[in-house]
Write a structure and sequence with these properties.
Layout: E1 3-4, H1 11-14, H2 20-27, E2 34-38, H3 39-51, E3 59-63, H4 70-80, E4 84-89, H5 92-99, E5 105-108, H6 115-126, E6 130-135, H7 138-151, E7 155-160, E8 167-170, H8 184-197, E9 200-207, H9 210-213, H10 226-253, E10 260-263, H11 269-272, E11 280-283, H12 285-288, E12 305-316, E13 319-323, E14 340-343, E15 348-350, E16 359-363, E17 375-379, E18 392-397, E19 400-406
Parallel strand pairs: 2-18, 3-4, 3-11, 4-5, 5-6, 6-7, 7-9, 9-10, 10-11
Antiparallel strand pairs: 1-15, 2-12, 12-13, 12-17, 13-16, 14-17, 15-16, 18-19
Length: 416
């Protein structure tokens, strides 16, 4: 039997705070598939991540795309206290939705130029919402400026800087591809375009070092590449610090106020919080700790988000087939984008089927009894993507259900 295994990872990083017997008990009689959050683990992760900011003078901006549940977003703010300030949204419509839920410091991290979105931004600005949008080209600020002038307000823009690692210039690009801004001069060009446009004001920069925050250096699915991943993370840090500082100084010297200097992600909270040029650090996935975030050498988080599938078949001894489960994560395709079964302990996906849309076979240790109708518990590879599949998240604490929370989908919202 060919199985997809992750057993070579540090076992303690995969441990849940509840047992399989407890899971069977609190899911008894519940509709499956179901998604649930271990609140004790979630709260612990919030404390661990925000504690990295202690003494730095920086705050944390919560990445909503990794949460996608208003109640859980509010819980991060409640547990994190003064260390948490602001939300990083992924859509303008989402920002408007969240502004109606009591969130007023909103950074839309992905630009939009459609008229309905600009109208929403104007309307929020009029209401006193501190809403900003990321830009990286003159066209962005020109369209924002036009909307701001027409609406009689000044819209706020944050320039995104490409923080990718280029050890040999353009011949090698390690990171994400989205921004045209790669220097202080490039950033100044956008800022000047905003000045000429009117109706829009540059209020900061965003510099996301994806090759540090988004690369796990203990990936058990491709262990041979881990030394390379670790080297990339370490070697790119000086360049990131230099470039962010260069851009901030360039803009400040030209009279632009840097209200927001945003950087980082869960995988680089420790590094980014040490960068004196930043005012805030972004994080999101680490609160749920999907399985990709168990593979970072600099993180010690606890699995908090799960989903359960119903066992509907037993095709042979030592194997069950579950209904549903094909919740594949975005990004570069590979086995690490598949969900992983975590309970019963020792369970494995099969290599040739993986996780399927309507059925997922799982190899179960032969000494464990799993009956038709029992659940198998999984961890998703990523965080917020899981919530798009479910209308609610069951909330558990100390091994029992203590409530539920609607996801964006459960509130009738689908932004992307």
């Amino acid at each position: 039997m060919n199985e997809i295994s992750y057993k070579d990872n540090r076992v303690t990083r995969m441990k849940t705070r509840f047992s399989y017997e407890q899971a069977k008990s609190f899911l008894s009689g519940r509709r499956l598939p179901a998604a649930f959050i271990d609140l004790d683990a979630f709260d612990d992760n919030v404390r661990k991540l925000t504690s990295m900011l202690k003494g730095t003078g920086k705050t944390m901006r919560v990445a909503s795309k990794s949460i996608r549940c208003v109640d859980m977003l509010k819980r991060v703010f409640d547990i994190g206290g003064d260390a948490v300030e602001g939300v990083m949204c992924f859509m303008m419509e989402e920002a408007c939705f969240l502004s109606g839920k009591g969130f007023y410091n909103l950074l839309v991290a992905y630009p939009t130029v459609r008229k309905p979105d600009m109208e929403l931004m104007v309307e929020m600005t009029r209401r006193g919402v501190d809403v900003m949008m990321v830009v990286d080209c003159p066209e962005h600020v020109e369209i924002m400026g036009e909307a701001g002038r027409a609406g009689g307000v000044e819209l706020q823009a944050v320039i995104e800087v490409d923080m990718s690692y280029r050890p040999i210039g353009e011949a090698a690009h390690i990171g994400i591809r989205r921004s045209t801004v790669r220097s202080g001069a490039d950033a100044l060009r956008i800022a000047r375009a905003a000045e000429r446009a009117g109706g829009v004001k540059i209020v900061g920069i965003m510099g996301y070092e994806a090759q540090i925050a988004g690369i796990a250096d203990m990936n058990p699915f491709s262990k041979s590449l881990n030394p390379v991943r670790k080297a990339i993370r370490n070697l790119s840090k000086p360049d990131v610090l230099r470039l962010r500082t260069e851009v901030v100084l360039m803009l400040e010297q030209q009279g632009f106020e840097m209200k927001v200097v945003n950087g980082g992600g869960t995988g680089s909270v420790d590094f980014t919080s040490s960068d004196y040029s930043c005012t805030e650090v972004a994080a999101g996935s680490g609160f749920y700790c999907p399985h990709l975030f168990s593979y970072y050498s600099n993180l010690d988080l606890t699995p908090a988000a799960f989903f359960a599938l119903q066992v509907v078949r037993r095709p042979l001894h030592g194997m069950v087939t579950c209904a549903g489960g094909g919740y594949i994560a975005s990004g570069e395709t590979g086995p690490d984008r598949l969900p992983v079964p975590c309970l019963p302990e020792g369970s494995r996906l099969t290599k040739f089927e993986g996780a399927g849309e309507v059925q997922t076979p799982v190899a179960i240790p032969k000494n464990i009894s799993v009956e038709i109708g029992d659940p198998v518990i999984f961890r998703h590879a990523k965080a917020g993507e899981l919530t798009e599949r479910f209308k609610e998240l069951l909330l558990i604490s100390e091994g029992r259900i203590v409530g539920s929370a609607p996801t964006y989908r459960g509130e009738g919202m689908c932004f992307m």
